[in-house]
């Protein structure tokens, strides 16, 4: 990648790697952090996907809106709320250079809320954050 034409990496994949390496999330989620729910997952499980974004600084900085989902088993809502609060706290604290992107800041968009999956009625807490990042240029 050149400094003249920097290309932002796949931010979802970058965030999965960043969050899987976060020591504060490991006791709760282990390696159960991905862009989609596994077919037969263990719980709790943290998913994330990009829902939008914009470029406040053309060809350099991106502001990506990401929805995070904390999934659990029936009856686990109190534990899921705590897990969602923990995940949001870690996400809001992300800042620094990572494998292929520099996260310059994160701001909350919507805080954790109980939104069961409409297809399965599986318990799930959702929250959204805006992640500001730029590519690493060598």
Question: What are the SSEs and their pairings?
Answer:
Layout: H1 11-20, H2 26-29, E1 33-34, E2 45-57, E3 61-71, H3 77-92, E4 96-97, E5 101-114, E6 124-135
Parallel strand pairs: 1-2
Antiparallel strand pairs: 2-3, 3-6, 4-5, 5-6
Notes on the protein architecture:
This protein is of the alpha+beta class and 138 residues long. The chain has one domain: STM4215-like, CATH 3.30.2000.30. The protein is built from 3 helices and 6 strands; from the N terminus they run ααβββαβββ. Strand 4 and strand 5 form a beta hairpin. The mean pLDDT is 92. The protein has a 6-stranded mixed sheet.
The major pleated sheet works out as: 6 strands, mixed
Overall domain count = 1
Strand order of the largest sheet: 1-2-3-6-5-4
Which architecture per CATH?
2-Layer Sandwich
How is this structure best summarized?
Helices cover 22% and strands 39% of the residues.
Fill in the keyword field for this structure.
138 residues, alpha+beta, STM4215-like
């Amino acid at each position: 990648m050149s400094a003249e034409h920097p290309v932002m990496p796949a931010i979802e994949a970058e965030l999965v790697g960043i969050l899987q390496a976060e020591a504060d999330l490991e006791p709760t989620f282990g390696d159960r952090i991905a862009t989609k729910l596994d077919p037969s997952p263990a719980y709790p499980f943290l998913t994330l996907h990009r829902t939008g974004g914009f470029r406040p600084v053309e060809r350099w900085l991106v502001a990506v809106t990401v929805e995070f989902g904390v999934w659990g088993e029936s009856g686990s809502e109190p534990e899921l709320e705590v897990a969602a609060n923990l995940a949001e706290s870690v996400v809001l604290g992300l800042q620094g250079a990572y494998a292929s992107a520099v996260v310059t800041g994160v701001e909350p968009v919507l805080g954790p809320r109980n939104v069961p999956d409409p297809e399965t009625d599986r318990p799930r807490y959702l929250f959204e954050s805006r992640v500001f990042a730029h590519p690493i240029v060598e």
